[in-house]
Amino acid sequence: MADFKFRLATLLQLRETTRDERGAELAEAHRAEEAITKQMTYVVHELNSVQAEYRRAAGPGTVDLDRLADAGRWEFALRTRQEELHRQLETAKAEIERLQQRFAEAHRDVRVLENLREHQADQHRQEDTRQETKQLDEVARQRFTRRQSEANA
């Protein structure tokens, strides 16, 4: 019988490509979030170092005002960077959520066409089976008729 050919195969390929692109965008957004998180970890580590520097500079003995001032400026820069990274992280998380929704929609679009293709392939197989059965029945009927004619002759 005839081979099954899904008429919407090109559309399915386009939707698969779109889904794959959405997945790549989502992966890139996750990498960006990870980079921001690493930077935040570094900033927190540096802030802890600044706190330790404050304790050393303000410790017993002579107070080094230049060291304290340097530590204060560095802490201010780090806190500013921390706030900026926090905003970037919130933006990245919102972007990830948006991209996850787009990826889920693209995946759903592909799945709908795959289900349609499977359904049509099943119908095609059933029709092939029905046609084969019909042909076999016709061959059997012809043999029976021929045998009947030979037996009557």
Can you offer a commentary on this structure?
This protein is 90% helix and 0% strand. The protein has 153 residues and is an all-alpha fold. The chain has a single domain, classed as Helix Hairpins, CATH 1.10.287.1700. Helix 1 packs antiparallel against helix 2. It is rod-shaped and about 130 Å long. The model has no long low-confidence stretch (mean pLDDT 92).
Quick recap:
90% of the residues lie in helices and 0% in strands.
* Beta-strand residue fraction: under 5%
Classification by helices and strands? mainly alpha
CATH fold naming: Helix Hairpins
pLDDT averaged over residues? 92
Secondary-structure element string: HH
Number of helices: 2
Can you identify the CATH class?
Answer: Mainly Alpha
Helix coverage percent of residues?
Answer: over 70%
Uncertain segments: none
- Taken from the alpha-carbon principal axes, the silhouette is rod-shaped
Strand count, sense and barrel status of the largest sheet are: none
Number of domains: 1
First-to-last CA distance: 37 Å
Instruction: State Rg.
Output: 36 Å
Count of extended strands: 0
SSE inventory with pairings:
Blueprint: H1 9-57, H2 65-152
Helix pairs in contact: 1-2
Structural key phrases:
153 residues; mainly alpha; Helix Hairpins; 2 helices; rod-shaped
